[in-house]
Amino acid sequence: MTAIGVGLIGTGYMGKCHALAWTSVKAVFGDGPAVRLAHLSEVTPELAAQRAAEFGFARSGSDWRALIADPAVEVVSITTPNQFHAEMAVAALEAGKHVWCEKPMATSLADAERMAAAARASGRVAVLGYNYIQNPMVRQIGALLAGGRIGRVNHVRVEMDEDFMADASTAFGWKSDKGSGHGALDDFGVHPVSLLHTLLGPIARVFCHQAKPYAARPLAAGGMRAVETHDIAAILFELESGASGVMALNRSAWGRKGRIALQIFGDTGSILFDQERFNELQVFVADGPNETRGFTNILAAPVHAPYDRFIPAAGHSLGFNDLKVIECHELLARIAGSEARVIDFDTGLAIERTIEAMARSSRDERWVGVSP
Amino acid sequence: MTAIGVGLIGTGYMGKCHALAWTSVKAVFGDGPAVRLAHLSEVTPELAAQRAAEFGFARSGSDWRALIADPAVEVVSITTPNQFHAEMAVAALEAGKHVWCEKPMATSLADAERMAAAARASGRVAVLGYNYIQNPMVRQIGALLAGGRIGRVNHVRVEMDEDFMADASTAFGWKSDKGSGHGALDDFGVHPVSLLHTLLGPIARVFCHQAKPYAARPLAAGGMRAVETHDIAAILFELESGASGVMALNRSAWGRKGRIALQIFGDTGSILFDQERFNELQVFVADGPNETRGFTNILAAPVHAPYDRFIPAAGHSLGFNDLKVIECHELLARIAGSEARVIDFDTGLAIERTIEAMARSSRDERWVGVSP
Amino acid sequence: MTAIGVGLIGTGYMGKCHALAWTSVKAVFGDGPAVRLAHLSEVTPELAAQRAAEFGFARSGSDWRALIADPAVEVVSITTPNQFHAEMAVAALEAGKHVWCEKPMATSLADAERMAAAARASGRVAVLGYNYIQNPMVRQIGALLAGGRIGRVNHVRVEMDEDFMADASTAFGWKSDKGSGHGALDDFGVHPVSLLHTLLGPIARVFCHQAKPYAARPLAAGGMRAVETHDIAAILFELESGASGVMALNRSAWGRKGRIALQIFGDTGSILFDQERFNELQVFVADGPNETRGFTNILAAPVHAPYDRFIPAAGHSLGFNDLKVIECHELLARIAGSEARVIDFDTGLAIERTIEAMARSSRDERWVGVSP
Amino acid sequence: MTAIGVGLIGTGYMGKCHALAWTSVKAVFGDGPAVRLAHLSEVTPELAAQRAAEFGFARSGSDWRALIADPAVEVVSITTPNQFHAEMAVAALEAGKHVWCEKPMATSLADAERMAAAARASGRVAVLGYNYIQNPMVRQIGALLAGGRIGRVNHVRVEMDEDFMADASTAFGWKSDKGSGHGALDDFGVHPVSLLHTLLGPIARVFCHQAKPYAARPLAAGGMRAVETHDIAAILFELESGASGVMALNRSAWGRKGRIALQIFGDTGSILFDQERFNELQVFVADGPNETRGFTNILAAPVHAPYDRFIPAAGHSLGFNDLKVIECHELLARIAGSEARVIDFDTGLAIERTIEAMARSSRDERWVGVSP
After folding, report:
1. Which pLDDT value is given to residue D1?
2. The complex's ipTM?
3. Where is the Gfo/Idh/MocA-like oxidoreductase N-terminal domain (chains A, B, C, D) (predicted)?
4. Inter-chain residue contact A292 with C299, CB threshold 8 Å
């Protein structure tokens, strides 16, 4: 199998995460093509060269179009700020490259639609970086659901909370500017929706309410400026399956750092999960004698594939960056034409439409259907 | 101080809980009047006599009007099924007795209004059995909020879940009949609302959605009958204070037994609480060095009054029935004319109106204000 | 059934706990004799009278011998400081009274032997106040063990930790004086040993090491005084069953409030328990598919008798004082000639001998057998 | 900075872990030399070639002496079975290579001494793979201790438990053969001792007891064979600092997967840690008002260096393999002549001597001093 050539645009939080995934994927999984780190792009040639040296890329530069044009590049990691995703992804697909683009997909529904169309037209693989769905414990939830372990799901709750906007004294920044989007709704919402999509299918209709913990924030220059985005959002919803649900998002939740808490209630049992302890999973099943029933806490172990590719011993914990390696492996499998667990651009568009329906519901104060 | 004469109507779950509270309150607290167990009423004279022997009441019978008329009775515990609350409470108040009535207050808003009016007219003490607010750890939450420990509260979430309706094979019973009320909304809703009222003040407006995990349930005689109540309810709300909130109620949540989970987010910290571990409390405060910040788990201790009246050692745990003893003590304080932490009939009516607004919102699919 | 007459000596921490148990036991359980609160004894007549009023005792005084001689008293609760247990218990038994004596049994092995002999000679019921064994969840552990749920037990660990001696600045007090005993060894040791005895049978041999976190403590008058007791003890042991074990005791463990943590390892599973969350229990059983194995957290529920006598709903939590009510009920059952779960004076003596063997081992730095 | 040439001997559990660390270290940390994967050795040339392709090594073969002799190799990762460590490490050091050898150091004290002597003679860096000490939360414990946050440490408890030997039906294997060592004592003991060494300094004396949960195990050919090693060990100890301690090890503890539980008690606070949730840490400090004291649960975050090199967001969790990357970075720092957090061969020898003292104590049933 010949090596696959990789181009990386952006080297921030997610760019580094992609670089680490590309570096490790072959060593972790053993199968698939070797990875050739071909071309890295950053805002300046100097930074690009520095990162290329750190990450081991053969070539670097500040022109992302040159990267896309580079014949040594077969797949492009796009990890730049969200507003650039559409232009880069469309260009890469049109140049015949596979694309691995970070979420959220785009900053407008129109852009997301354009990306999905480009992907369809290209015949190339176009995948979004929803790494939480790659967690072996999330896969295990999927296996439990598919196996009917808790029966038909009738209700679900999901919360996503962090505290990076919790400090009232933080100066007004771009996240409080309406140009950045709705706030928690698109910043966080896509993650729970991606999990719901993967585990329980699409959302049919939504009712959303948004809130601002702080009406205004201080300006660096003195004075205050009214906040235009909502750090808090709450959504009632119904899945196409008929199950009802509640979603709560808060990026100003003091003390929460990476909480994505799922509660799935079925006819014969329940499943609980929290991303802050993502190597664990709790399952209650209504069978056996009453006196020994309870939530069972399952620790991630080699039996939960592909945990075994990382560590042969149970209870030793995968890390957040490992999830990106799994995602990278799924992307390579899809490129090789195999079944793979990925959020492609069509599903990504469905997720964006769901968020958009939430925003519309919040504005109109009514239930809004998610158009397919 | 002369002893106070107690009448008890009903000896089921809450009736026994009242009996235990009346029996222990003087021994636990040391202060206040001695308690004279004067008169007990049950559906048959035989059952009444048996329970009177067990609980130590001097007199018994099946005529609750005789109990109310009994001059030996100064305060009446009403613990019968909800549909009898109004008639009994009004009669007792009109007879000049103090009333301690179990929640929910009544089965219609009209009844609740009648009860509140009777209480106002009587000049007697009329209190509802919202025992969760009596938990020393809930009081501690109140003290933390009052002391500004987490700043102004900007968002709150509360869940209440049990699983007594979770089994799909359970035969159709009165809780699935619309005569019993809305379902989880009034069965559970009053508890979170009472906690919010006590800790954070009244709710201003609500948006509610109700759901049925099972469309129909089996009849004992064979066949199925359509379920008329909703075992699941979810509510978006705004407090009068301006804080936004989410409430989720589920009486068919497999594995949940007595969960009432509170998450209170403030400008400078957060507070977490779960009734299933009600001797604990978690507090995050955004001060001190970042590397040692986190949620602090506080164990109930003598320093959290009136835990000290029960146990002089920390971390030894109060029980559910102890909360009723505290409530009984507050009732006696109120009767003695002191400040007391109780939900009186006026506040109880406000709680009922809040639930009613939720029901209306669910029916009309719109935000509904809670009329004061 | 005629009422049983109760005498109570002492009204401190445990005295009040006994009083509450005597007050509630009939109302909680419904069966057994009514309880007549006959006679209360305290150090002064005034305090005795005050407590008698609070607790509802008919007679009071400062002469415990008068209480024992009182024909209205059939059973005597002894809750005085430990050094008085022997004299009072022996006198009560010789007067033909049943005895309910708080642990630890006595302050010397000779006293404990005298008490056990008096109990045997009297033909009366003589029981010690080891209330932790009465917890329904501890009973559930016993049921799981008896049912072979985790196979033969091969190893056990038990820790007991509080922090009442943790503050180095606390003045030298009687607990640091060798007159009070060994320290954590007898202060705490009897509790884990009583649990082991009840659940897993007697200890065969021990190796013990004691430690002092603080060599000296401040005197109120200024200066320091060398500490003579050991706030920390650690014991390796073997049960008569052949299982090995580790016990760790620390009364200067900052942050621990009522921790008694059990870990029981068997051939086919494990059981975990912690008294700080004594309404819970964790069980791991090595069966079923590997991917869903884990520790199951069981919440106390009516199915765990006699929880149902207190609360008909699961997950609502018993309290520490409720355990004493259960113990009181077991005592009454034993008095009535029924099977009962109690630590009688013979077993209490065996527990004291085990502690004594630990002390000897610590002194001699060798394994010491527990003489039966 | 010129790249450093790496040789890897062994590609099992730890071999792959080393390979991943070498692959990622430069990309994660950005600093230090680039890494050249020069030479990989396995038991057969075929397996060596396969792994070299997967891991990206330039050269491969089955002759580890050729690897050591390879001038392209500057540092040698030794991850073979323990009995080969000594010969390989000594040879590598004598050839002037730096050595990164997996723990435990060797299978005999004589071998360990030979290795330490070779390291000293060589002037090269020789480091053992004790990766648990590299956890940012373990470093944070160290920082808290150094900063006096819990005062002088007076008592410590540490447990290490897994369940790979828990199944009684597992056939007799090499881990039950005395040729493999003592059992849990050396299999597990080195890890807690390495943590104690790093955080609290050397152990002064020990008393140890070993136990066998199963006297015999089935032979594949039928019949049973007596087990010669101890799956359980318990150790009482004193640190050179004067603190007392308890260590409990169990490799047949059903349900435990990667538990290394630390409890550190100091004069003014306590610290708790469990490797099964190694991105968390609990700290109790005895200051501030009593009503808000408790254990604070700290989530790993960028503020806990070098977590920030992996993930810029708090609460997103490092994984087990990430700890090896940190260790690799420390090794490179040491090679570059900087301060580094490593267990070198001298400290490794001290750890082995501590284990040996435990074994001797167990055999002689007496306290044994750890010779420096």
Report:
1. 59
2. 0.97
3. 4-129
4. no
